[in-house]
Write the structure tokens for this entry.
Amino acid sequence: MVGEKFSRIAEEQSKELAEMLVRRLTTSPRTTAYQVLNEAELHKELFALLHSLTDWLMYRPPQDVEAFCAELGRKRAKQSVPLDQGVTAMISCRDALLDLLLVHRMRSRISHQADSGSGLFEEMEFLLAVNHFFDDAIYYFMRAYQEEVRESAQVA
């Protein structure tokens, strides 16, 4: 089931992951535009994604992913967040999920749980699902962002 175990772990830690990501995005020299965004709203957006990760990875149709990410791309364009910083934020979110998997894996090894073929397969499924989701998310984000910038330029 597409690494459901790891999706559930991310969902259980979604509040902490969202808080960590907000801190990372508002302090990184690569995402300086995020310093002026409303931190509570940013946390809410990240939490909404992370808290329902299983749903996003397994059950949501591609149109929902497109709509969510396109809206986010338009919003960031309107907020004057540079495109590279918006993409960096999405990559940071993906990396936080993959880091969570690594931490969980290290804890499992420390507690002497043996790797099983099915466990490794589940990890691989999760990695692939997360990467696929974020590949699509970045594409839809960028496309909508660029459309918003073009439309705003035509109006001006």
User: Anything to note?
Assistant: The chain has a mean pLDDT of 89.
